[in-house]
Amino acid sequence: MKILLATDLSLEAESAARWALDLRERILATERSASLSALYVAPPEHYSANAGERLAENPDINARQTHQVREWLRTLSPHTDDIDILLEEGKPATVITNYCTTHQVDWLVLGTSGAGAISRAMLGSTAMKLVHRAPCKTVLVQPDHATLSEPPGLSVALDFMPGSQAALFSAAHLAHLTGAQLDLVHILHDTPTPTLNTGLVNYLSPQDIDQLTERTRECLIELGVEVKTLYPELTFESHVYAGPTVATLTQHCETHSVDLLILGKKSRSALQDRALGSIASAMARKHPTSLMLVPPEDHLDR
Questions:
Q1: What pLDDT score was predicted for residue 201?
Q2: Structure confidence by residue, pLDDT tens digits, 20-31
Q3: pLDDT higher for 58 or 121?
Q4: Preceding omega of 295 cis (within 30 degrees of 0)
Q5: Which of 89, 119, 147 finishes a domain?
Q6: pLDDT score of 230 more than 70
Q7: CA-to-CA distance for 68 and 63, rounded, in angstroms?
Q8: Contact 184/220 with Cβ under 8 angstroms?
Q9: What are 262-299's pLDDT values in tens digits?
């Protein structure tokens, strides 16, 4: 497993670093290999004062920045000397995405300052671009979630579309690593919608919602039983709600003390970054807890 920590050495990034270190140790405890690298991306203009030399062209600057990152890691944990330190220049979203793609990264871990505000190097648009562009599991860590607690509260949002299957199995894998119970969550849309042909409103009565809730819960249980074939020790609960998706998921996170919410994400190109209409995008902006966003093509056996 390859874990990449994207850091700007800020206070917010410290929580992400500890989270990534904890993840690596848990993977290693299962006798699987796991590597952790720390990537620091500097904008090209950052070194313009140095006679126009770029980071890669100046060994002294490169050495100083590497030392700074190394010392920063050592303040967080004494077990960081084996972490590879990577220095790059350019637009952070582009550099990080390209690195993840080229090196087949499994986990990308970022720090945030909570309440939807992204830390210095990941200012707003950069993080939102990574939410969509990164080809791997992407974790946005809130400051108060510096480690995977014992055990963490894990919830995965499922919509029964193909993309959510990858989120489910990634969530089950993390529950296996941490000994956590996994909550399976589905949101029913209770808002009346016009029909395509007549323009009339489709209305679900309370009885209809009750029946649909029960059928949906049965489907969630079937999914839970399916993942237990891979992880027999896994325990899970199913939760079915009716209401606006983002607000209802946020309420679930608050009432169930969720440490990490796992969602499937849609792959988008750079030209589609402004069309952030998906639930994953909305939850990334809302950011009620730490989030893990899983691409539909994610594979656990990489």
A1: 54
A2: 999 999 999 987
A3: 58
A4: no
A5: 147
A6: yes
A7: 9
A8: yes
A9: 998 875 444 444 333 478 878 877 878 999 999 887 75
**Do the beta carbons of residue 227 and residue 169 sit within 8 Å?**
yes
SS3 track for the chain: CEEEEEECCCHHHHHHHHHHHHHHHHHHHCCCCCEEEEEEEECHHHHCCCCCCCHHHCHHHHHHHHHHHHHHHHHHCCCCCCCEEEEEECCHHHHHHHHHHHCCCCEEEEEECCCCCECHHHCCHHHHHHHHHCCCEEEEECCCCCCCCCCCCEEEECCCCHHHHHHHHHHHHHHHHHCCCEEEEEEECCCCEECCCCCCEECCCHHHHHHHHHHHHHHHHHHHHHHHCCCCCCCEEEEEEECCHHHHHHHHHHHCCCCEEEEECCCCCHHHCCCCCCHHHHHHHHCCCEEEEECCCCCCCC
Residues 193 and 115 in one domain: no
247 and 130 in one domain? Answer: no
Count structural domains, the chain: 2
Among all chains, which residue has been given the structure tokens 């807890």?
Answer: 289
Of 253, 260, 242, 60, residue with least CA distance to 154: 260
Least Cα distance to 231 among 282, 182, 273 occurs for 182
Contact by Cβ (8 Å): 133, 103:
no
Q: Does 301 reside within a domain? A: no
The pLDDT, as a whole number, for residue 203 is: 60
Same-domain pairing of 183 and 130: no
Q: How far apart are CA 240 and CA 216, in angstroms?
A: 7
| Distance from chain centroid for Cα 97 | 14
Q: Residue 204 and residue 193: Cα distance in Å, rounded? A: 10
Residue tagged 């009565």 (tokens): 205
Indicate if 192 and 225 belong to the same structural domain. Answer: yes
For residues 97 and 108, give the distance between their C-alpha atoms in angstroms, rounded to a whole number: 10
More confident site: 255 or 90 = 255
